[in-house]
Amino acid sequence: MPGSTLLHIDGVEKRFGGFVAVDGLSLEVKAGEFFALLGPSGCGKTTLLRMLAGFETPDCGRILLDGTDIAGVLPHRRPVNMMFQSYALFPHLNVSDNIAFGLKRAGMARDEIATRVAEMIALGRLEGLERRKPNQLSGGQQQRVALARALALRPRLLLLDEPLGALDKKLRDSTQRELMDLQRRLGTSFIIVTHDQDEAMTMADRIGVMNHGRLVQVATPRQLYEQPASRWVAEFVGDVNIFEGRIERREDQRLVIACHNTGAIVAAAPRQSLAGEAVCVAIRPEKMKLSRQGPAEAAIQAGAINRLEGTVSNLGYLGDISSYGIALDAGATLRVSVTNTARVDVDDFRPGERVVVWFEPDDCVVLDP
Amino acid sequence: MAGRAQPGLSRFNVTALALGLGFLYLPIVILVIYSFNASRLVTVWGGWSLRWYVEFFNDQAMLAASWMSLRVAAASATAATVLGTLAAIALSRGARFKGRTLFSGMLYAPLVMPEVITGLSLLLLFVAINVERGFWTVTVAHTTLTMCFVTVVVQSRLNSLDRSLEEAAMDLGCSPVRAFLSASLPLIAPSIAAGWMLAFTLSLDDLVIASFTTGPGSATLPIRIYSEIRLGVKPEVNAICTLFIGLITLLIVSASLASKISSARGDNAARA
């Protein structure tokens, strides 16, 4: 039943001495969902995952899997498997025996085990490596053995702790796609813990951003990036320019915000707001346009476009994009990224050059300061 | 692994190696050669002979002492391995209890404690509880002496193990005890074996504690040899030592061969 709730975490709390690792956290994960827990190190995401696996017991709260509370159930009695950050492959067992480990413990018949192991070997593209010991495998192969072993028992829920952390960048990109394919094919719910936002954004259906043991926002990757719930989320996920100021007035669907060091910014106003309220305006670097002339006067007059003037202070060429640091005349510094669409005759801006930065009110997000 | 490059030995390295090995093994080589000496005098070479070996196998007292030593070594090494391994597990896996540092420090005390003190205190204990001194008291004393060595060896291996191995085993359906047995025990087995051998040799070698804790009629080999030597060195002692060197070499070589074979099995599987 895709779409039904598989996992229901209800007010779970975990303390280590005086340190609150997970603080009254609630979350629902649907069957067949690819869910990512994202957060800085020490935010409690790994503790939460370990509670789901059974290696930690919550101090209070419930963890319901298919409606049954498993908070106090020992790890070996849960229909949940985990793929460890270190892979935790048994060094004294070969690939086949590693994969068969859980099946043997489950008391499965010999020929059934052989069939399932063969299936998992094919799934992990490990043909020909069956008799190798883990230390005779490459990092990528070890990762696939760990995944095959965790999936061999056909768990309802697979937990992955930084599964790609030990791989190099190229391999990580291809493995991300493989993981997504596999997850869609099997329909198993995946919960992945990562500190790498690209990884979470690429793979997950939904992302839960954690900080100080709490979920700050649970949203799809797009919502998370375009509609961050707080200034912290906006700054944690991707690059962002933040301007602090006060609401001056409301005009129809627009807010006019007097920012301290940019001048007035016009932003779309989806939220309730009071004149004089302190707010901040968040805008992503790629949402801004950079030019020497700026947009037509008429558009600015109509209040449809924000226009800021400044000087290029530095630039970084990253291949696909160029990232400019702009010092505004009003005092703020901001970052603008421009996609390099053409190979030659690029109209780039040099440090010291006068430029106009402009962006639309709809691209601004107004947040609490 | 095939094809690993061997670094070449420079002249300096060869000299250093030769001097080092010579310093370590020359006395032993001389002892072995002189055990085949036909002469009655230890320092005078009188031609090759097995005379002193024959003498040893006819010397009932010496044979009894050797047998006593071997039994004490085997029994105390086994007991020390069991206890030492359990202590190592408790120290590296147990919950952080209060006084844990003190406990582990106390466990290692016998490592640095002068043997005379250990021996004397054990003697006082045995006298106080009034047990007959002999095989069992020496065995208990040697277990006390060697247990901490086993703990050191096993604990260092346990601490270097990835904790998530056991967690993975639990995750795949093992109870905590079962997880330890199937995930960690195979990996610490070589160090447990090493601990046993260390305990065995330490016990075989010990003179001081054994002298304190043994009773009449149950002398261990070192005690026996020591008392013989006070009356003058007989070449028979050389023969006994040679036999024991042979025994220990056999133990060590077979242990290292066993580990070679098991890793070679893995290599072959990789090539297949």
Strand content of chain A: 35-45%
Number of helices of chain A: 9
**Greatest interface (CB-CB under 8 A), with counts per chain:** A-B, 29 and 24 residues
Q: Which class best fits the helix and strand makeup of chain A?
A: alpha+beta
Total of helices of chain B: 12
Mean pLDDT of chain B: 85
Q: What is the string of helix and strand elements of chain B? A: HHHHHHHHHHHH
In whole angstroms, the N-to-C terminal distance of chain A is 42 Å
CATH architecture call of the largest domain in chain A: 3-Layer(aba) Sandwich
The proportion of residues forming helix of chain B, as a percent range, comes to over 70%
The backbone outline of chain A, from C-alpha atoms, is elongated
The spatial strand order of the largest sheet of chain A comes to: 6-7-8-3-9-10
- Which whole number gives the mean pLDDT of chain A? 89
Question: What labels would you give this structure?
Answer:
heterodimer, A: alpha+beta, OB fold (Dihydrolipoamide Acetyltransferase, E2P), 6-stranded mixed beta sheet, 5-stranded antiparallel beta sheet, 9 helices, 36% strand, B: 272 residues, mainly alpha, MetI-like fold, 12 helices, 77% helix
Topology:
The complex is a heterodimer of chains A (369) and B (272).
Chain A: E1 5-16, E2 19-30, E3 34-38, H1 45-53, E4 60-65, E5 68-69, E6 80-83, H2 95-105, H3 110-123, H4 139-151, E7 157-161, H5 169-186, E8 189-194, H6 197-203, E9 206-211, E10 214-219, H7 221-226, H8 231-236, E11 241-251, E12 254-259, E13 263-268, E14 278-283, E15 289-291, H9 297-301, E16 306-317, E17 321-328, E18 333-339, E19 354-359, E20 365-367
Parallel strand pairs in A: 3-8, 3-9, 6-7, 7-8
Antiparallel strand pairs in A: 1-2, 1-4, 4-5, 9-10, 11-12, 11-14, 12-13, 14-20, 15-19, 16-17, 16-19, 17-18
Chain B: H1 11-34, H2 51-58, H3 60-93, H4 100-107, H5 109-112, H6 115-128, H7 135-160, H8 163-171, H9 176-205, H10 208-213, H11 221-230, H12 235-271
Helix pairs in contact in B: 1-12, 2-12, 3-7, 3-9, 3-11, 7-9, 8-9, 9-12
